[in-house]
Write a structure and sequence with these properties.
The protein is mainly α. It has helices at about 20-45, 50-65, 85-90, 110-135, 135-140, 145-165, 170-185, 190-195, 195-210, 215-220, 240-245, 250-265, 270-295, 305-310, 315-330, 335-340, 345-370, 375-395, 410-425; strands at about 1-5, 10-15, 75-80, 95, 100-105, 300, 400-405, 405-410, 440-445.
Amino acid sequence: MTKEQNTIGTVGIYDARALGLPKMILLGLQHAFAMFGATVLVPLLTGLNVSTTLLMAGLGTLLFHILTKGKVPAFLGSSFAFIGGYLAVAPFIETEVNGQIIRTPNTELLPYACGGVVIAGLVYVVLAALIKVFGVNKIMRFFPPVVTGPIIISIGLILAPTAIANCQQNWLLAFVALAVIIICNIYGKGMVKIVPIMLGIIVSYIVALITGAVDFTAVTSANWIGNPVPLSGFAKFSVSSIISIVPISLATMMEHIGDISAISATTGKNYMTNPGLHRTLLGDGLATSMSAIFGGPANTTYGENTGVLALTKVYDPKVMQIAACFAVFLSFFPKFSAIINTLPVAIIGGVSLILYGMISSVGIRNVVENRVDFTQSRNLIIAAIILGCALGFTGINGLTFMVGSYEITLSGLAVAAIAGIVLNAILPGNDYVFSTEEKHDELTFKL
């Protein structure tokens, strides 16, 4: 089989077919586990349907791979960036029952929030068209490594507190999951080294069963077969919901560029050029619009799965396609989804801790490989502002301002990205030239 070197010489697997179908299915299942917790959390926080969310994550990922010619190893899961928009348009209905506040989804207004997300996804299409017309080189001049590197670092650092919060639920399970992943990745051979996350989940889940930390209540009440797309969830449109939600897409498009930069840095392939940023944006945007039409959340390229790529060094997009098929399958069988959902959040926290850290490490590597000169004041200032805004504004739940009578909130990462792009454009010394070359050499070897 063939392996290739990424930009720092680390050998990675770009064609997993030689591993055999059973191993590829196992790798796909590993990515499905990595995305599951965060993907189903979004509908739980917004009131959307979990089965619809899983279906649209799977179909959205497959659509993305079709539009990107099956070249980019990305998984599209539920976007957290739009949660504020959903809750602004369709806040939960609170009722008091026996002295307790019960929150129920606002099923009447949720379709209108989905309508706003449909239009937000189409904004991606507009930017993709502009990149196609004017060329990626002119666009990427605004996104040099001094901007994308700190943004990628910020993605992992922003997500890290969530992992710690989950670990706090049961530090034993979190530590077991983390320890197994590290041991398998450092000392493992063959498939053990390639699927450390799966092994970490399995071993820690066994410990959870032994210690009585698994709750099967939801499994017993879940149906075996269900309709993942209820008719009541289809998108509806109103001017107010569109105005409230569409501005969020300006931030998530910046996040998309950061994510694709992270995947490119991880694999050593220049996806900005081949298949092209216009194609990845088109895939992300249309996947988001398709999901929202049927009552699902906005989709986005998932950092969790990028972390899996960095850890396992298996970069074949076909593995992501297998994970997408798992998501589609689970959407029709609520019982299986409920079984996976019995995974204690502490295990998810332990796994996420290393995956989120991997994302930040990729950002550091991106800066180092591109030899960003931090003896220059402009580079220091840009990086400092990006990191400060990303972590600072995230700590106060973003930047909120009014446009007319509408309230708009930008995430800390969005504020950081915008600040970094603007500073890079206006400060003197921007001599960055975007390279269209892919830097990796092919090697042959035996597994």
